[in-house]
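Question (not urgent): is this output format expected?
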Amino acid sequence: MNLCADELVLRLADRDQVASVSFLSGDRRISNVADLAAGLPVNHGLAEEVVTAAPDLVVAGLYTTRTTVALLRKLNFPVVELDVPVTFEAVEAQIREVAAVVGHPARGEAMIADIRAGLDAIPARETGTRALVLRPNGLTAGAGSLVDTLLRRTGLVNLGTTPDLEGYNFLPLEWVVTLRPEVLIVDSEPYPRPALAYTVLHHPILERLPYEMRAIGVPNRLWTCAGPAMVEAVSILARAVEPPVLAAADRHP
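Got this back:
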């Protein structure tokens, strides 16, 4: 009943083990597993849908569908609630947890090995580059978030880690101007229809800043959930902050 739960279950369980996934998993704009979810029954986090499906296990998010989860527990449905991991160690622990409850622990270890190998292939460097994440609705990613962990793994300095912006918080555009980021990271896959949530990303002030700033696009779906896709997010950031390769004529003797 949760997008991130969908992703792990769909990657780790057999298809015939999955009675239902959330309706969000089929949205390619926000889901990394839309192909795996295609053709499966969907739910909208309603208790009636879960009861009708009669599952042996419900996998939910710790911060979503709270009323439904409480009712399901009263009805004695086994429920596993997934927290939002913010460290690589916590990501691996969650993968192992889901792999175990769906009966495929070896798949969990294989997924972890793939993530480690993907990250190890990306050079870790301290760039000192000052970065700020600006998401739809003006949200930013501060300290205590998975996004912050991935930014630090890339060598970026996350300007969203001030005490006022811990976790995911709203970022006034005035702060974008005063924090003076060298890199602004925005969602590179905007909503296909006009939406007020995205207007902040196109505000004229972002094109008229009194200092030099580059914009980098990272699809939000790559680092919304803890899973293999976060390796691609780190790769995009690492390539974006690599120092430019100078042509021979531009090099100093």
